[in-house]
């Protein structure tokens, strides 16, 4: 509605709108905290196993920063885009058992779930995935409470990180061949979007992902093609 036409909102309407918006943002923040694990484990002493896992995670993190082509490439392009990422912003820590990592846009940090990696390659894919989210945030100023924005970044992160390579799918017990990569990207993006409390149901997640899929899947920046 044009600002010069139609009735002006009353004070109570404006306040309710602000409250609804604030409530929605808080729900998203709580979800983001759960997704990343940041904020859930503050102040909890590490067990000896957690300490060992974190030490191993830190060692592998540094090795990947120094030696992984995809991690090095993403860090270089983040720096070129004005978002240099120091190693301390890649945080090894304890998380719940449902995920391997997450991106916290408010802190400009990536959490690496120290106890949840089954190999260095798994950790590499996780770092690459979250670095794509960080790149999108840096380059395109993503609104993470906007389902279309999140869907696009999830499509790109799953496609470009190696999450949907044939070997990765085999490890999950998915044996399809024809169109495997695209179907994996679509499935995983829908799952991530459906987990967002701002998304009412899986049907909505599927609809939003399908609406943006073609253009976002084709956008391989900063890569020339799918890694």
Automatic annotation (TrEMBL):
<dbReference type="InterPro" id="IPR019165">
    <property type="entry name" value="Peptidase_M76_ATP23"/>
</dbReference>
<feature type="region of interest" description="Disordered">
    <location>
        <begin position="1"/>
        <end position="24"/>
    </location>
</feature>
<keyword id="KW-0482">Metalloprotease</keyword>
<dbReference type="GO" id="GO:0034982">
    <property type="term" value="P:mitochondrial protein processing"/>
</dbReference>
<keyword id="KW-0999">Mitochondrion inner membrane</keyword>
<keyword id="KW-0496">Mitochondrion</keyword>
<keyword id="KW-0378">Hydrolase</keyword>
<dbReference type="Pfam" id="PF09768">
    <property type="entry name" value="Peptidase_M76"/>
</dbReference>
<dbReference type="GO" id="GO:0005743">
    <property type="term" value="C:mitochondrial inner membrane"/>
</dbReference>
<keyword id="KW-0479">Metal-binding</keyword>
<dbReference type="GO" id="GO:0004222">
    <property type="term" value="F:metalloendopeptidase activity"/>
</dbReference>
<protein>
    <recommendedName>
        <fullName>Mitochondrial inner membrane protease ATP23</fullName>
        <ecNumber>3.4.24.-</ecNumber>
    </recommendedName>
</protein>
<dbReference type="GO" id="GO:0046872">
    <property type="term" value="F:metal ion binding"/>
</dbReference>
<dbReference type="GO" id="GO:0033615">
    <property type="term" value="P:mitochondrial proton-transporting ATP synthase complex assembly"/>
</dbReference>
<feature type="compositionally biased region" description="Low complexity">
    <location>
        <begin position="10"/>
        <end position="24"/>
    </location>
</feature>
<comment type="function">
    <text>Has a dual role in the assembly of mitochondrial ATPase.</text>
</comment>
<comment type="similarity">
    <text>Belongs to the peptidase M76 family.</text>
</comment>
<keyword id="KW-0645">Protease</keyword>
<keyword id="KW-0472">Membrane</keyword>
């Amino acid at each position: 509605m044009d600002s010069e036409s139609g009735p002006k909102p009353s004070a109570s309407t404006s306040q309710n709108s602000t409250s609804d918006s604030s409530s929605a943002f808080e729900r998203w923040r709580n979800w983001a905290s759960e997704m990343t694990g940041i904020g859930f484990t503050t102040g909890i002493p590490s067990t000896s196993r957690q300490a060992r896992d974190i030490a191993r995670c830190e060692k592998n993190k540094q090795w990947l920063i120094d030696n992984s082509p995809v991690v090095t490439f993403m860090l270089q392009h983040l720096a070129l885009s004005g978002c240099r990422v120091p190693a301390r912003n890649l945080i090894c820590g304890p998380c719940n058992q449902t995920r391997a990592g997450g991106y916290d846009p408010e802190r400009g940090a990536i959490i690496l779930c120290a106890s949840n990696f089954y190999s260095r390659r798994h950790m590499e894919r996780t770092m690459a995935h979250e670095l794509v989210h960080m790149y999108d945030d840096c380059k395109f100023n993503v609104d993470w409470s906007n389902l279309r924005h999140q869907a696009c970044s999830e499509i790109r992160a799953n496609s470009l990180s190696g999450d949907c390579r044939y070997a990765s799918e085999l490890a999950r017990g998915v044996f399809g061949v024809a169109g495997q990569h695209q179907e994996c990207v679509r499935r995983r993006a829908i799952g991530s979007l459906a987990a967002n409390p701002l998304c009412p149901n899986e049907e909505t997640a599927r609809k939003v992902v399908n609406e943006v899929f073609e253009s976002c899947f084709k956008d391989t920046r900063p890569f020339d093609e799918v890694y």
